[in-house]
Amino acid sequence: MAIGQSSGIEKKSLAGAAVNELRIVKLGADDDHVIQAAANSDQLIGIAQHTASSAEDEVRVMMTGISRLKLGGTVTRGDYLTSDANGQGLAAAPTAGVNNTIIGMAMQSGVSGDIIACLLMPSRIQG
User: How would you list the strands of the sheet with 115-126, edge to edge?
Assistant: First the structure.
């Protein structure tokens, strides 16, 4: 049986630029905006629940719970997840002494292009 989505807190925000569905987002230029994440060092805050086609479109961001997430690489259930350059989930693998910001933990295994369940718990880990 596949793990389903379980919404916790969702926040309505404005997109600072186009944001794709089921991608990781980070804080934008001000308190009202989010943008698609682009690195494992970004301040990751949640996962966009639908596409925002352009700047100033409203986007719902799931911040707690279990959200679906599109992958940008191979992950194994239990891996901590961070963002690639396109806001897709990757297994966090920081080298010794380096920090990675994570969005949560993979609840399922998958490969690039798959959509999996992600237990949201934004934080930072160090290699």
Answer: 6-7, 65-70, 115-126, 99-106, 80-83, 89-91
Q: How far is CA 112 from CA 6, 16, 63, 73, 108, in A?
A: 23, 26, 23, 4, 13
Residue 1 maps to a domain: no
Task: Round the average pLDDT of the chain to a whole number and report it.
Answer: 95
Distance between CA atoms of residues 38 and 77, nearest Å: 22
Model-level pTM greater than 0.90?
A: yes
CA atoms within 13 A on the CB side of 50: 11
**Does residue 100 sit in the same domain as residue 54?**
no
Number of folded domains in the chain? 2
How far apart CA 126 and CA 60 sit, in angstroms, is 29
CA nearest to 101, candidates 24, 5, 17: 24
Question: Is the predicted pLDDT of residue 5 greater than 80, yes or no?
Answer: no
Residues 32 and 50 in one domain: yes
- Show the domain range for 117: 66-126
